[in-house]
Design goal:
Strand order of the largest sheet: 1-2
Distance between the termini: 46 Å
Strand content: 5-15%
Radius of gyration: 19 Å
Number of helices: 3
Shape: elongated
Largest sheet: 2 strands, antiparallel
Number of domains: 1
Order of helices and strands: EEHHH
Number of strands: 2
Length: 81
């Protein structure tokens, strides 16, 4: 855990002979960092192959698929004004 402190993932507090570790980032930030690490190292930064891998190897419900399509449509409106 000591290695996670310089990375900004944890904070420490000394209480007598104890070291109390606390999360320095939110769970969402941790997920975001982990996702981008995986994208960079496992997929060479290529988003499409990563999404294809996830969609082909994970059961997805119609509701989840509709959610993804909605996210893509919102992003498309931002990119293509």
């Amino acid at each position: 855990m000591d290695r996670m402190v310089p990375q900004g993932l944890l904070t420490t507090e000394k209480i007598r002979h104890l070291t109390l570790y606390r999360a320095a980032i939110t769970p969402q930030e941790a997920q975001r960092r982990e996702l981008f690490y995986t994208l960079k190292h496992a997929f060479n930064g290529a988003l499409t192959p990563m999404l294809q891998c996830l969609l082909e190897n994970h059961d997805i419900t119609p509701d989840q698929l509709a959610e993804l399509e909605e996210v893509i449509q919102k992003k498309r409106k931002i990119v293509e004004p």
